[in-house]
Amino acid sequence: MTWLDIGNGWRNLFLLSCALQAAALGVWFCLRGWFSPRHRAACFLTGVAATPLCQYLWMLLLALLWPQAPRWVYIGVPPAAAAVGLGWMALRRMPRFWAALRGGAAMRAAGQRLRALLRMDRATVAVVCFAACIMILLLPVCVRYMSSMESVRGGDAGEYLALAQRYCEDRDLGNLLEKDDTTGHFRGHSHFPSLELYMSYGLFHTGGEVGYPNDKAVFTGLGLNTFYMAAAYLALLIVACRGRRRWVLLGVVLFNLVPDLFFSVESAPRDIWRILALLWAMLFFAGLEPQGSRRSYLGKLVLSFAVCFTVMSTHVVCFVVLPFIVAAWVIWRWLEARMTELKGAAGVLLRSVGLALSGAAGTLLAFSGNLWCYFKWGEMSPWRLMTTYTDAPWYDMYMDIEYKLEETTTHLHFFEAKDSILQSYATPVGEWGLRLALIALVCVIAYALVSRVRMRRRARLDRADGPTAVLSHSAGAAVASTAGLWALYTLLTLAPMTGLLDSPLYSFSGSFLKLPRYTIQWFLLSCGMICGALSALETLWPTLVERVRDALPARMQALRKAAASAQPFLLKLPACLCVLLCLMGVVKGTNQTGYTNTFYRYSRDVMESERILLDNGFRERYGMLMAVAEHVGEDQKILITRVGYQYPLRARGYVLTTNPIVPLMNLPLDEVEGALEEMNVAMLATEPDFWDERYYPLSTLNAYLETLPQDQIVETEDMRLYLLDRSLIPYALAAKD
User: Fold this and answer.
1) Three-state SS for 720?
2) Structure confidence by residue, pLDDT tens digits, 142-166
């Protein structure tokens, strides 16, 4: 049995566990009608998307209450609870199901639903075909890539994995929360370690030593986040489009136009983790009602706190996105109340603000690590802070590359840079999402004003019922309410990119422009806005056509007859527009010279790559490093240039650019050798291009390493080892061959 067979076995167990949990949460949300009571499919998908977040919260709960629990408790309780929950929900409804089955009601209802599903017009059939083509193109590459170790290649991901591995071994949550690492193994992240705890859940699915080569489950778990994100996105589309199938399917096609998505999956799993959480927060608040009894309201306060804490803990970038999601919800609830009630909007606003403040408390709790770092160092990212400042030549280049001076000091004027932001990588969804959001918001405000006037007129005509009994629950109000929410979501979450939050400490607008993967959630929201706005237009289109026809003067009989005869064709225009947009989306997404960053464009390389198909990329990249590290003494040090090496080294490395180690790069040349001997350094590990093309060649450390005999510098395509301990040379050469 090979290492791959062992890893795949634990991966399959992990997949079965996740499937049980996703099914239980999906069915539970569906039966309860949580967050999307009008759309059961959206409820189910929302529950599915909550699966990894619940797993993270489970790990956090155990870390706080019972960190030394047996491994079977960590990985066994969630699927066992899911299985029991599914069984209980089935047993409770079994009598009702058998009664309906005996009476024939169940069969008739199933038949009606099947006929409704199959009774699609030609436009919808065409849209289904386009969406199916996109899914057929994307699914194989997603399944192959997401289950591969190649899905986690970035330096940060390796550090998160090493931290998760260390937690699995010592069960010490304090080590994950530590911000001031004095050893040099890690950088002291300011964020809350949610992804690390989620990774720990995957790492516990192993029969032996935690980590490579038994760690296939954790890589699969990280890959699954993309599918959970897709479930949340689909639920968002269903809610935004109010269940209209053709527009939901258009959103599936537009998914292939989201910029930088492949890059984020490939190199930054934390971005997918963050995007999933933000989309889930949008779904949660879209279905959160501020009304209810005192007991119900208290429960909602707790839930709002927990949701905002969970979402904020996924990534520091959420601090400039999540508050705008909550603010959009508060404004929407007030606007909705103004549209539907003559009085009571102020009360709705106060209750909504209370829930928002509860969410703010959860947000600040998850952000407390960053605040601690700021009060101590004046910085929210200690891993970018070097306490040893220097005028050495390498330092300026370090500040540009690692500290990202260009991004963090670039302050944008939105209207000057909007093309760069909205049309990132030539995708049109950003620009059209903004346009339709502005149009939708103007229309909703106009509708609210007209509704207020009509309700006041009705109140004057019927004083007996009192003004508070005058409500407006028309189909137009429902459409306006949904459109208003997504317009506010789209516009307010664009705020961090406009420079509104820029400060001398940090430029959020520059970061969002220079790092477009930070904006993926906004582009997904733009896709939802496009589909939702066009769905609302289709809903109102028949009424608009009839009103335009009726508005024609009676003396224009010929024109009225022509309008009546053309009405069937006019009513089909929205459906034809949907088909046309699907066609344009497929063409734009697969154009070799146009949009260049889709999954489809990369699918051929992924499906033909031997490293991915055989999943041996991890061994090829780090095999020599792991083989040599086995022979490094416990009292010796391994210097590394990338934190990503910590996972294959099982956290034995010392990161060269951390505060305790970086003084080595500032020494005079004649003192470097003595310092290395005093630190008892056995080797320095790096990648050829990472060392040669960054700031390291400008240091005196590089000048010393260049004087080593050639047999002490062993290099492959992926790694370069500077072997200061000559006894390691035979092991490096054997591993290289």
Assistant:
1) strand
2) 777 777 777 666 578 888 999 999 9
Residue type present at position 256: N
Contacts of 383 by beta carbon, 8 Å cutoff, 6+ apart:
187, 188, 189, 190, 658
Decide if 75 contacts 17 (C-beta within 8 A): yes
Say if CB 716 and CB 704 are below 8 A apart: no
| CA gap 64, 56 in Å, rounded | 12
Using alpha carbons, list the distances in angstroms from residue 498 to 325, 421, 493: 16, 9, 10
Residue 6: other Cβ atoms inside 10 A: 16
Closest CA to 362 of 286, 281, 290: 281
Q: Which of 56-70, 89-103, 677-691 has the lowest mean pLDDT?
A: 89-103
Beta-carbon neighbour count of residue 402 at 10 Å? 14
Omega before 213 within 30 of 0, i.e. cis: yes
Neighbouring-strand partners of residue 638: 653, 683
The whole-angstrom separation of Cα 399 and Cα 396 is 5
Residues 6+ positions from 520 with CB-CB distance below 8 Å: 258, 259, 260, 261, 264, 271, 275
Q: What is the pLDDT of residues 539-563, one digit of tens each?
A: 988 888 887 777 777 666 777 677 6
**DSSP-derived 3-state class of residue 640:** strand
The Cα 533–Cα 242 span in angstroms is 10
Q: Which pTM does this prediction carry?
A: 0.91
Angle at which helix 40-49 crosses helix 51-65, to 10 degrees, equals 40
Alpha helix positions (H), 33-172:
40-49, 51-65, 71-103, 105-118, 122-146, 155-170
- DSSP at 413: -
- Could you tell me the sign of the dihedral formed by the alpha carbons of 609, 610, 616, 617, in that order? negative
| Separation in Å, CA 16 to CA 23, 146, 666 | 11, 16, 52
